[in-house]
Specification:
With about 350 residues, this protein is mainly alpha-helical. The chain contains ten helices and five strands. The chain has a three-stranded antiparallel β-sheet with strand order 1-2-3. Strands 4-5 form a two-stranded parallel ribbon.
Length: about 350
C-alpha cells in the first residue's frame, strides 16, 4: 500500500506539472492566434488593394486602347475626306507676318471657297463634328494615359516595398530547406517563380521546390511525375520544418508522412523533425503514424500516445502491470515520463 500511495502521489505531481505547462501553452496559443489573425487581416487587405489596382489598370488599358482606335479611325476618315495638301502645309508652316498679307490670304481663300462646288451642304457640318470628336477623343486618351501612368507608379512603389520583404522570407526558407536536405545527403532549394515576377503577373506567383536525390541528376521541380511518393514525403516534411521559422501557428499536424519512405531517409527525417519540434518557442507538433522504426531518437519533450483497441486487448491491464504508468502509457512512454 505504501508503494501504491507513493506511486499515486508521483502521478498526481506529474499531472499537476502537466496542467501548469498546459496553461502556459494555452496562453501562448492565444497570443499566437491573435498574431496570426492580425497578420491574416493585413495580408488580406494588401491582397485586396493589389487586386483593385490590377483591375483599375486593366480597365484603363482597355479604355486607352479603345479610345486610341477610335481616334485613329476618325483621323483617317478626316484625312480621306479633307487631305492635307502641300499648299496648305506650306501656308501653315510659313504664315504671313503682316496684317495686309493676312487679309489678302483670307480673300484668296474665300475666293477659292466660293469656287468649290459642294453637292452636300452638310459636309462642313459633319467635318466640324468629326473634328470636335477627334479632339475630345485625344483629350480622353491623354487623361487616361495620365491616370494609367499614375497607377503604374503606385504599383511600382508598392512592389519596391513588398518584393524585398518577400524575397527575404523566401531566402530564409531556402536556407533552412537546403540545410535540411544536406543533412540527408541530398540537395534542395526553394525559389520564387521568376517569370511571374518579371511579367508582373502576381496571381501566378508561387514557390518552386526543387530537389535532387541522386548525384547523376540535376535539381528538378517537385511534382508527381519526377519523384516517387517517398521522395515527395521527405521533401514535404523538410519544407514544413523550413516554414517553421517564418510562420506563426499554434500547432502542426503531420499525418502518416513516413509512409513510403525508405528506412534510412525515415530515420534522418524523424531526427530532424524531433530536433525542430523540441526547440524553444516552437509550435506543438503532432505526428500521426501507424508505425515507427525501432531505435529512433526520443527526448523527454516528446509525449507518446498509443491507442490500443481491438477484441484481443485485455480489460485488466492495470492488474496485469505492476506499474500504473506502464499500463497507461506503455513501457517506452512510461520511461520518458518517469
Amino acid at each position: 500500500m505504501a508503494n501504491e500511495s507513493k506511486e499515486g502521489c508521483k502521478l498526481l505531481s506529474l499531472v499537476w506539472e502537466k496542467m501548469q505547462a498546459s496553461a502556459a501553452r494555452d496562453l501562448s496559443l492565444k497570443e499566437a492566434e491573435m498574431q496570426m489573425s492580425a497578420l491574416t487581416d493585413a495580408a488580406k487587405r494588401r491582397r485586396e488593394a493589389v487586386e483593385l489596382a490590377e483591375k483599375a489598370v486593366a480597365q484603363l488599358e482597355a479604355i486607352v486602347a479603345t479610345e486610341r482606335r477610335e481616334c485613329e479611325a476618325a483621323k483617317a476618315k478626316r484625312d480621306a475626306e479633307a487631305p492635307e495638301t502641300p499648299e496648305l502645309l506650306a501656308t501653315v508652316k510659313a504664315p504671313p507676318t503682316d496684317v495686309e498679307a493676312v487679309k489678302e490670304l483670307i480673300r484668296e481663300k474665300e475666293q477659292e471657297l466660293d469656287q468649290i462646288v459642294c453637292t452636300n451642304p452638310n459636309i462642313m457640318r459633319e467635318y466640324q463634328q468629326r473634328h470636335t470628336t477627334i479632339e475630345g477623343l485625344q483629350k480622353t486618351v491623354s487623361e487616361a494615359d495620365a491616370v494609367l501612368a499614375s497607377m503604374q507608379a503606385d504599383m511600382s512603389a508598392t512592389r519596391e516595398k513588398w518584393l524585398p520583404e518577400l524575397m527575404k522570407i523566401v531566402e530564409t526558407i531556402n536556407t533552412s530547406f537546403s540545410a535540411n536536405f544536406a543533412e540527408i545527403g541530398c540537395a534542395g532549394e526553394v525559389v520564387l517563380h521568376e517569370a511571374s515576377i518579371a511579367a508582373e503577373k502576381y496571381k501566378e506567383c508561387a514557390l518552386e521546390i526543387r530537389v535532387q536525390f541522386r548525384e547523376t541528376e540535376s535539381l528538378e521541380v517537385l511534382n508527381i511525375h519526377r519523384q516517387s511518393g517517398g521522395e515527395r514525403s521527405v521533401s514535404t516534411v523538410l519544407f514544413l520544418i523550413a516554414l517553421q521559422g517564418v510562420t506563426v501557428t499554434p500547432f502542426r499536424v503531420i499525418d502518416e508522412i513516413n509512409q513510403g519512405m525508405d528506412p534510412i531517409n525515415e530515420r534522418k527525417v524523424f531526427t530532424q523533425l524531433v530536433a525542430s519540434a523540441c526547440r524553444p518557442d516552437t509550435p506543438q507538433c503532432f505526428l500521426l503514424t501507424p508505425k515507427l522504426l525501432p531505435g529512433l531518437h526520443f527526448t523527454p519533450d516528446i509525449t507518446i500516445l498509443q491507442i490500443m483497441n481491438g477484441p484481443h486487448i485485455h480489460t485488466n491491464l492495470p492488474e496485469k502491470f505492476a506499474n500504473a504508468a506502464v499500463a497507461m502509457y506503455g513501457r517506452r512512454a512510461a520511461a520518458l515520463v518517469a
